[in-house]
Amino acid sequence: MKKFINSVDNLLDESLHGFAKAHSDIVQFNAQPRFIKRIKSSTSGKVALISGGGSGHEPLHTGFVGTGMLDAACPGQVFTSPTPDQMLAAAQAVENGGGVLFIVKNYAGDAMNFEIAAEMLDCPHETVLVCDDVSFPKSHSTGRRGVAGTLIVEKIVGAAAEAGADLATCKSLGDRVNLATASMGVALSSCTVPALGKPTFEIGENEIEMGVGIHGERGRERIAMSSATEIVDYLSGIIDDDLRPQKGQSALLHINGFGATPLMELHLIYELASRYWEKQGINICRSLVGNYTSSLDMAGCSITLSLLNEELLRLWDAPVHTAALRWGC
Amino acid sequence: MKKFINSVDNLLDESLHGFAKAHSDIVQFNAQPRFIKRIKSSTSGKVALISGGGSGHEPLHTGFVGTGMLDAACPGQVFTSPTPDQMLAAAQAVENGGGVLFIVKNYAGDAMNFEIAAEMLDCPHETVLVCDDVSFPKSHSTGRRGVAGTLIVEKIVGAAAEAGADLATCKSLGDRVNLATASMGVALSSCTVPALGKPTFEIGENEIEMGVGIHGERGRERIAMSSATEIVDYLSGIIDDDLRPQKGQSALLHINGFGATPLMELHLIYELASRYWEKQGINICRSLVGNYTSSLDMAGCSITLSLLNEELLRLWDAPVHTAALRWGC
């Protein structure tokens, strides 16, 4: 394993200190327990949005803390859930009279630890569980995983909260965006978790993993390496069958890199995916291409389609000022 | 080789079509000959800034086309110079009465092809040759390479041009920023050029290449894998010896990922590098961390220090609206 680290034990803290220093105009880092919060206080009565999860998916979630998006993010160790004391401390630091909305990717550990934190909170709170990964059927035993669509929920609900939406409105908006969003990924290579020191899974020189999870979990099937068009059509076809978008609907198309795939290839995937959806009569009117929900150094990408009506598009377009997404302010 | 491509022959065009489609509010793609230009016309009399070079370093340079930065960028094939007809066509498309400034990374092919284009231009023109890579001595036979510092030249001169600076001012400003900027990189792994299909160089499991070029060119020396702190101190020491910043000077610290290194590690490098410079009495007052001058799928990073006085800081902070850098508008 070759990585830029001093030791596995302090990798996360050294990285978070660097992140907060590089973006000291936007965020600050609380070390004990660990959370990243906005430097600017929110308006009194604003719903506080808090997310979190295992590290290794940067910029998710820390890179989305700031005006128009999250109030705080709680990073766990690499691919490991944060602990309830982190969420509780973050909530106490940013709650400002409007209650707390937790935005949680659907993994057993994350869901449980956010739930424990929620039970200990003495202010109004709600949780949006994101489960946009359509690799497995809806009936899957542990439910579907939350992946690259999470940032779309965070952005849209973040804009609503900033504009004064109350807790119930934010909660139902988050659930709506989650239901309108579907993602599917493919891995060309494994990632390497620093504490493990070797690839999470083995994969042959001519194989790719369709429907891979963002921690390198097994997907739907392993197939032979294919052309970019075949890969895009496979992923998009599964999204299409699941989300069943109607002709003429407007959508955001998000191509997410897992970490080691060049931007040049992600733009090529965007071209092919946008052709696919245009052929289906979908109006691709917003785009996001880059490494946003990464999986350490995994080569691969995911395609996310999010169906956005005029209200949701307006919230997507609203000003945002975070380390990883910034426009309009 | 596992990459998202249909064929080596149309990789570049499919990618550029996707890039232009994903950012159709900012840029448009001219396919024959290839260049990316701003969608919004510039003010009459504004100096037109044009850059370019081999592809595979995205977002450099296409991702820096837009208000406050470049007027056009000419992408060559992967790691291959663009041809003079590209620069000539781009110049004819964006020249608007203020003349043309070419910003060129110092590689033999790029320098020659931009020079040929310049000779064919029938409007006032100047060229800034960027050579910020301090891996080799100033006296090196082909001169020093232009690497991650190039975007700082493009951003600062871009802001000046937008504010109405004339061609001579833009040229001398670009030269000043180049002289005030030093970079040094390290590779943990090789990149793989699609047309070649195998890694550009071999490197042992316990070796790293200090001073590597952004195409995988040999660097200063190959050493044993070291701790992140040792690597940062090595790179920063060489920059320090070369640039000789004075105590109290203000600087931008840019940590650039080569493509396959997780953001988590880049932020850790930022933390260690900022500690190094603070110890030397340098005032690190601006930061940029991420994959900006990439080398396809190479794992590694570079450190760039750019000494910016108040005038240059103001230009760095000025509004910019491109695919890869966006603030203030």
Commentary on this structure:
- 2 copies of one chain form a homodimer.
- Chain A is α/β, with parallel strands linked by helices and 329 residues long.
- Chain A has 2 domains: 170 residues, Rossmann fold (3-Layer(aba) Sandwich); 127 residues, Hypothetical Protein Tm841, Chain: A,domain 3 (2-Layer Sandwich), CATH 3.30.1180.20.
- Chain A is 31% helix and 24% strand.
- In chain A, the strands form 3 sheets. The first copy, chain A, has a 6-stranded mixed beta sheet with strand order 1-2-4-3-5-6, with helices on both faces. Chain A has a 6-stranded mixed beta sheet with strand order 9-8-7-12-10-11. The first copy, chain A, has a two-stranded antiparallel sheet with strand order 13-14.
- In chain A, strand 5, helix 3 and strand 6 form a beta-alpha-beta unit.
- In chain A, helix 2 packs across helix 3 and helix 4 crosses helix 8.
- The radius of gyration of chain A is 19 Å and the shape is globular.
- At the A-B interface, helix 1, helix 6, helix 7, strand 11 and strand 14 of A face helix 1, helix 6, helix 7, strand 11 and strand 14 of B.
